[in-house]
Amino acid sequence: MAHRLLPSFFHEKYLAILGLTAVSLLSFGLSQSFAQTTITLDTTRNSYGPGDLIEVKGQVMDFPNKLVAVQVKDPSGNTIMVRTIKTDGNGNFVIQFKLPSTAIVGIYKITTNANIAGNVIAQTKQIAETPTVPEFSSMTPVVFVVAILSILVLSMKTRANLKI
User: Does 14 fall in a domain?
Assistant: First the structure.
């Protein structure tokens, strides 16, 4: 014979409360797991110049085949690109876009959003648009010397013509 410390109606009441508490905690735990879902976001570089191709890679953790909205804003807050892309079977996505040739110098903001079970999760990354510095080839010194010599020769010819 089992010993009961409380009358049976207390056990039923506590079982009902315990059941409701378990359901509430379970529901809370599920919504928390959705809230913990993240989007990773990365670019191949942190700095770009006008006309550069930018590749944005990311992943919606634990949720494959989801739509992800990608938005890019320039330093003035103007939207320069908005696209929606579907993640693959592992939740990965890749999107490429070209920075306009008229891009202004400053910090650009890339924002991604995905709707997971009614919760919107987002991730933001900032990249810098820097002034383009021209690249000089190995021929630059030769071109420089030829230019200087040309200037000297023209100066000498001009002086010679003036003396006549």
Answer: yes
